[in-house]
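Throughout this chapter, every protein is written as a compact record of paired, labelled lines. An example of such a record is reproduced below:
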Amino acid sequence: MNFHAHYAGITQPIETCLVGSGGFGRSFIAQARRVRLVNARIAVDVTAEAAGRAFASAGIPASEIVLCETPAEARAAWDAGRHVAAGRLETVLDLPFSMLVEATGAPEPAVRHSLLAIEAGRHVALVSKEADSVVGPGLARLAQQKGVVVTPVDGDQPSLLIALVTWAEVLGLEIIAAGKSSEYDFVLDAATGAVSCNGVTKLLPELLGHWLPGERSVVATSVERARILGQAFPLRAVPDLCEMTLVANATDLVADTAGFHAPPARVPEIADLFAEASRGGLMQGSRRIDVFHHLRLAEEASFAGGVFIVVRCEDETTWAMLAEKGHVVSRSAGTAMLYLPRHLLGVEAATSILDAAGLGRSGYGDDYRPRQDLIAVAERDLAAGTILAMGGHHHSIDGVGAQVRPAAALAADRPAPFYLVADRVLTRAIKAGEPIMLGDVAIPEDSALLAMRQRQDALFVREMEEAGLTASEPRAVNDAHRGAMAAQ
């Protein structure tokens, strides 16, 4: 596809308002200065000063940045052609921007910001996957009703993987599995047996004996690697499961196991590992989501948190030819892995903004619905009164892990979405291995996230009831919706 031709009908730059100037937000501001059809002159953070620093880090002169505390100040700065930095979205909401880029990563504010934008008739790029995993389908449906679009962004893995999955489906490829690599590679020093990951180095010489599977089972080899690496590094990260939840809700893929297999693997092994068990792989069926931990030597290229699909090789002659050209085909020649080894954060967000605000298209597609939930599970005994504080780069909760399970409406005796319990107080003790139920946490009555989830539940449960289906039949719901879309 020629992207210049694809966007040829957009003649005026899309004005955006960024909320949240962390790593994603800063890369977006910096790149927008080089994108002809996207402008980023408005930024909001916890303070106007923080938003101003984001502009400055992108090379914008201080004389061009105005810190604004009131709507009147924001309007004056905008009219003067300056960059507007504010500490609240309400300060800039009346400015003439078309799209909100919500990148706070904080679920409560993300929902509030998104609702304000939708009510104001603005499109939303929902970078905050934490909120998306709880209420993304509901926000997308509300936006549709208002005549605007909520979309993921190509700078993050969910959007890229949704595109890869649907591209393969258009080509008639049967998908066995889809997923991503974990954010940071495991890099082996073959001379010493030291393994480095995200700035941490551990001496694990035993891994050398399991670096290449040779004639052994690739699955068995990955199990041994996980045992060795698991002694020194965590092998599950909530954001990985969170991102795949979004993909499942957009594509009707499901988790093969609630906590994911997450095998440590080298790139040539992916087609074998994510094949069906009948072919020696891990999967118990097809159309599954998962992640892997990329193992490599220092001189080898990174997977960089990229995305992949494993497809069935239907035509022996074609895939033999493709294997000769370097494509990753399994030992049995029954499956192959296709991949995009990159995600560029705000550097590539412009395509999603142009698709949404310029062409009215969402990266989720037309059938984004709650098919899977990311739920919270205690990893150790938690006492009543424990504050489930979310923090760190991965927005994790100490002592709490996550699983991906079929979606269900909220209820006091049902597992609660992971990011709905974040920063809440436990009202009863939870044993290790138990899911945290909605009734186990105290959530303020004015929680925008809780209210939006209840609104989402009511909306989609009603649709299922009208179709004569239940929440335990997500594939049937999807098939019914596709049939209705085809009829339209």
About this structure: The first strand starts at residue 14 and ends at 19. The first helix runs from residue 3 to 6. The CA atoms of residues 310 and 337 lie 4 Å apart. Confidence is low (pLDDT under 50) at residues 469-488.
